Amino acid sequence: MAAPAPQEPAATAAPEPAKKVKPSRVARRAFGTFLREEDYQTLRRISFEQSRPIQAIVDEALADVFAKHNYSEYARRGG
Questions:
Q1: Among residues 31, 44, 68, 74, which one has the fewest Cβ atoms lying within 10 Å of its Cβ?
Q2: Residues 6+ apart with CB under 8 A from 72
Q3: What is this structure's pTM?
């Protein structure tokens, strides 16, 4: 009976390089939702008319909701 072959140590995986994060996404978290088509089109129209990104409009809307529910300390406008 042959001697068992020596086992090689498990290869350690090289650490993954740190992901590059856009400065506008630092300290932020992704969140998704479903909109009715007409609501999405309205949001895009507002974005175009005001020359503002949708993200800024959603940030403003969230600030308004937080203020409405007495969480105004979390209402950071302007993204």
A1: 31
A2: 66
A3: 0.64
